[in-house]
Amino acid sequence: MENNDFVKELGYLGFTMRLKRISDAMMHEGRRLYSELDVDIEPNWYVIFKLLKSRGAMSVTEIAESIRMAHPSVIHITNKMTDAGYLISEKDPTDSRKRVLDLSARSVKMLPEYEKIWQAGEKGVEKVLKEHNALELISILEDKFFDKGFKERTLEQLKNKKS
Amino acid sequence: MENNDFVKELGYLGFTMRLKRISDAMMHEGRRLYSELDVDIEPNWYVIFKLLKSRGAMSVTEIAESIRMAHPSVIHITNKMTDAGYLISEKDPTDSRKRVLDLSARSVKMLPEYEKIWQAGEKGVEKVLKEHNALELISILEDKFFDKGFKERTLEQLKNKKS
DNA sequence: TCTTTTTATGTAGTTGACTACGCAAATATA
DNA sequence: TATATTTGCGTAGTCAACTACATAAAAAGA
């Protein structure tokens, strides 16, 4: 960080933007990392890989709920993974509305290599965050600001001017 | 948060995605908040408003550096603010490459109202985060993961397999 | 059984970041 | 002074997330 960072000067008002900047920066770093290692996957795919490996085949909506994402986002990600040959998509035989996704043979073959990278990334993050209770803070943020949290809290403050 | 959140199960591996989810959620909440209050501004504009109010007129690149964003992003945001009548754009008389941006009369008129909202939002965030050293943690994240941080740390871990 | 409601998926359109590249003006250098 | 480099801005193209809406199948209810 440079010392002339205006967002930092804004205190708690700058919090959301700083959160976004860090998250965006890490995403872009992830993309650069993969491209430098010549690995043709994208950041965030790892969640789908891990999920399907752990739980087996799942439908679009099941995936969306498991990782708390809107279903169109899941469709977008998994379509790209399917195009890249990492996922297999099949109609559910008992419910023809559903589409069931699972890891392809290519995924099974490549996963060991990719998991090395993810483990290294995790270690790097862990080293920095272990002594700072970072996961605990993230949990609190999720509890307080997911869904209606931030808006409601602000409207509340606008009404009760006293505080 | 629901209890069946797979990303949470991933430990430090899920950290970046959880960061992104929270930051996205807060952004969307912000948009909903403004629309509910019938205010025609967008999340993140507040940083530009605050910056120009505090520092006076600035060029595109100066703004980008002050808030640590890529300059095309700043152009994108400030163009929309200009279209909405909140900013004035003028060529720098001494350097014709530069374009200098400043708050319009409309901004000056509306700012007191908007600042009430931002103050309320800040209070809401502050209430939740005060006892958790959240700003300190954000600073650490910025120090460690901005720019080349995350990629370099991961590559390092990939080499030194021992740790 | 026929109709209504719910569920699962998909598409379209919006927003907000980024990188890569191009162009023109200012500055530095030969 | 002429050329080369740097700087400032802008555009194009990419990607990820969201909401709103559409469609079709399944489930529920009359």
- Helix count of chain A equals 8
Q: What is the assembly state of the chains in this entry?
A: homodimer
H/E order of the elements of chain A? Answer: HHHEHHEEHHH
Q: Which word captures the global form of chain A? A: globular
Main interface: chain pair and counts:
A-B, 82 and 82 residues
The total strand number of chain A stands at 3
What can you tell me about this protein's structure?
Two copies of one chain form a homodimer. With 163 residues, chain A is mainly alpha-helical. Chain A has helices at 6-9, 15-36, 45-55, 60-66, 71-83, 105-129, 134-145, 149-159, and strands at residues 58-59, 87-91, 99-103. Chain A has a domain at 1-38. Chain A has a three-stranded antiparallel sheet. In chain A, helix 4 (60-66) packs across helix 5. Chain A is globular. The model of chain A has no long low-confidence stretch (mean pLDDT 85). Chains A and B meet through helix 1, helix 2, helix 3, helix 6 and helix 7 of A and helix 1, helix 2, helix 3, helix 6 and helix 7 of B. Chain A binds a DNA duplex (30 and 30 nucleotides) through helix 2 and helix 5.
Précis, in short:
Two copies of one chain form a homodimer. The first copy, chain A, has 163 residues and is mainly alpha-helical.
What labels describe this entry?
163 residues, homodimer, DNA-binding, 3 strands, mainly alpha, 7% strand, 8 helices, three-stranded antiparallel sheet
